[in-house]
Specification:
It is a single chain. The protein is an all-alpha fold and about 55 residues long. It has one domain (about 10-55). Helix content is about 65%, strand content about 0%. It contains 4 helices and no strands. It has helices at about 10-15, 15-25, 25-35, 45-55. Mean pLDDT is about 85; it is low at about 1-5.
């Protein structure tokens, strides 16, 4: 069974690599990722999302 989260960002903080990458991002990128309905499940997805945001700004 897949874990459920009351905080939709909890999965970011369970993976140390994802957490380290996320907190290293500028605040505006973090905010854009947090604002998305679909949150990243893997480090690769998080990196892809960050790159997408960078392209927009």
């Amino acid at each position: 069974m897949e874990p459920t989260y009351t905080d939709r960002y909890a999965n970011l903080m369970e993976d140390p690599a994802m957490e380290a990458y996320f907190v290293s991002l500028p605040g505006y990128i973090q905010a854009q990722i947090r604002a998305r309905k679909q949150q990243p499940a893997t480090l690769e997805e998080l990196q892809r999302m960050a790159e997408e945001v960078k392209q927009l700004f």
